[in-house]
Amino acid sequence: MSRAWIAPYTVVAEDQTALPGGRIRCDACPRGCTLSEGQRGFCFVREARDGRIVLTSYGRASGFCIDPIEKKPLSHFLPGTAVLSFGTAGCNLGCRFCQNWDISKARDADRLAEAASPEDIARAAERTGCRSVAYTYNDPVVFAEYAIDTAEACRARGIASVAVTAGYVEGRARERLFRAMDAANVDLKAFTEHFYRKLCVGELGPVLDTLRFIRHETRCWLEITTLLIPGWNDSDAEIDALASWIARELGPEVPLHLTAFHPDWKMQDTPATPRETLVRARRRAIAAGLHHVYTGNVFDPEGQSTYCAGCGALLVARDGYRIERWRLDALGRCPDCGRALAGRFEPKPGDWGPRRLRVLLDRAEA
């Protein structure tokens, strides 16, 4: 890999346009922040410096943990395996309900930073037996150069890469990021522009474009998550519209995860999502044509298990992040009707279970 280094842990960002008057536009996301010397963008980690935009968080992570892949959440990508998860600081959305706000809204990157090169991360994943690395906690869109270089280092060792993202990206940045990924879970936060403008300081349209791009123009496996917030995006009409769009534009095999909100960040007065809301929404999404709809952040073994889209047989029984029963054959097919299950599977599932381990670069600890 070749990067233009400015200083330790700082590289020239890929996507930028020089403008008259010495200003520079960041082209990494739809915001298109226009910056003068010394200014930082909305994400806080891309800065105009010496006539170029640089990524100030390259090589500095907010910490590393080994998680079950189901926690990302991904239910059709190497089930049961361990994934090495990390993020940096900053975010290009302003979600009032952010559940990782201490990382995504951080303005003191040095306080959060744990130095780690892409090669360090790939070696740590290999050493700890992780089948993949996840770029998560904050959005890899804002640290794309770091994520892409790490993905390249991982691929050289046979380790997959997973983007956990809001998909608020466009143009060349979108293409570079997702062509480097093996799987992605995109947070489709709602299905109205009003929600995105009011609660996220963003727009819905670019996220839909990202979903179409991943599904139709890359080999990256795609799953989608929607956090249901009472009174904001949990109506029957919105669930029907969202699920119908996924089935029509992306295909009925794309898994949808419907997860429960809990009060956090700037929405502490909003009540948590009742389990009954998720169960109802899952049924409606299936009725709208989706084959694989999951519930999250609640106890619901039926809503967390995988069923054959052909005959309805139980294929993978889950209790939270633990696989209780595995019925796929060695080729990832239903043993009852022979239909292949959409996703990326190995002959046997992993046995990582629900454990979570904090990882230092030279060891892992509970």
Rg measurement, Å: 20 Å
For the termini, the CA-CA separation is 33 Å
Q: What structural category arises from helix and sheet content?
A: alpha/beta
Give the domain tally: 2
CATH superfamily of the largest domain: Aldolase class I
**Order of strands across the main sheet:** 17-16-15-14-13-12-10-9-21-22
Q: With helices defined by DSSP (H or I, 4 residues minimum), what is the helix count?
A: 10
Overall average pLDDT: 93
Categorize the overall geometry: globular
Would you identify the CATH architecture of the largest domain?
Alpha-Beta Barrel
Beta content: 15-25%
CATH class of the largest domain: Alpha Beta
CATH third-level topology of the largest domain: TIM Barrel
Largest sheet: 10 strands, mixed
Instruction: Please give the number of β-strands.
Output: 22
Helix amount: 25-40%
Q: pLDDT below 50 for ≥5 consecutive residues: which ranges?
A: none
Helix and strand layout, with pairings?
Blueprint: E1 5-7, E2 10-12, E3 16-18, E4 24-26, E5 34-35, E6 46-49, E7 52-55, E8 60-61, E9 64-68, E10 82-86, H1 101-104, H2 109-112, E11 114-115, H3 118-127, E12 132-135, H4 144-155, E13 160-165, H5 171-179, E14 183-187, H6 193-200, H7 205-217, E15 221-228, H8 236-250, E16 256-260, H9 275-287, E17 293-296, H10 301-304, E18 306-307, E19 314-319, E20 322-326, E21 357-360, E22 363-365
Parallel strand pairs: 10-12, 12-13, 13-14, 14-15, 15-16, 16-17
Antiparallel strand pairs: 1-2, 2-7, 3-4, 4-5, 6-7, 8-11, 9-10, 9-21, 18-19, 19-20, 21-22
Helix pairs in contact: 3-4, 8-9
